Amino acid sequence: GIQVEQSPPDLILQEGANSTLRCNFSDSVNNLQWFHQNPWGQLINLFYIPSGTKQNGRLSATTVATERYSLLYISSSQTTDSGVYFCAVVASGTYKYIFGTGTRLKVLA
Amino acid sequence: EPEVTQTPSHQVTQMGQEVILRCVPISNHLYFYWYRQILGQKVEFLVSFYNNEISEKSEIFDDQFSVERPDGSNFTLKIRSTKLEDSAMYFCASSEGAGPSGNQPQHFGDGTRLSIL
Known about the structure:
The complex is a heterodimer of chains A (109) and B (117).
Chain A: E1 4-7, E2 10-14, E3 19-25, E4 29-37, E5 43-48, E6 52-56, E7 59-64, E8 69-74, E9 83-91, E10 97-99, E11 103-108
Parallel strand pairs in A: 2-11
Antiparallel strand pairs in A: 1-3, 3-8, 4-5, 4-9, 6-7, 7-8, 9-10, 9-11
Chain B: E1 5-7, E2 10-13, E3 19-24, E4 31-37, E5 44-50, E6 53-57, E7 65-68, E8 75-79, E9 88-95, E10 107-108, E11 112-116
Parallel strand pairs in B: 2-11
Antiparallel strand pairs in B: 1-3, 3-8, 4-5, 4-9, 5-6, 7-8, 9-10, 9-11
């Protein structure tokens, strides 16, 4: 089945710093979403981005489906950005999301 | 904005007991899903459901598990004879479209934390 790898696995930033999180996938996909899992365990949808570029405030994402990767950019990070960031993909011909192993982000004040 | 609602938020059950986790998907959505996340691990797909039948399931979703849409608004996951290793966060999700019908984003509920004692 499709493999989804995220990097880096862990990231520590000072408040105000910028970061780039990467998601690589091993096969063609129909869907891709980025989620932020907060300390209470909730999965917060950040972007639905099977292709192209989107921006929402300090966050932006780019998916290059033909090269099988997606990037999540966080600018001017805040302590509330801490948590685990997951990308999830739906492989062609299936219904299910396959989640990556996540990037655990800690933003220090 | 419409939300997927899950109840209860936390369920504690004795090993061997049956448990039912409940979800109310977004009202105009047609595709429904259950996922689980064991503490510290990634989120794993369990099952997808469309038109009153299972459309896809993982190897985790064995005879211990079942899903049902009993009344047109609720979507339930039943776990029979629970085991310690069933302890996890269970997420329900729904989408307008999927697969051949055209993929749409999946909207996730806040999860039910299941603890098996």
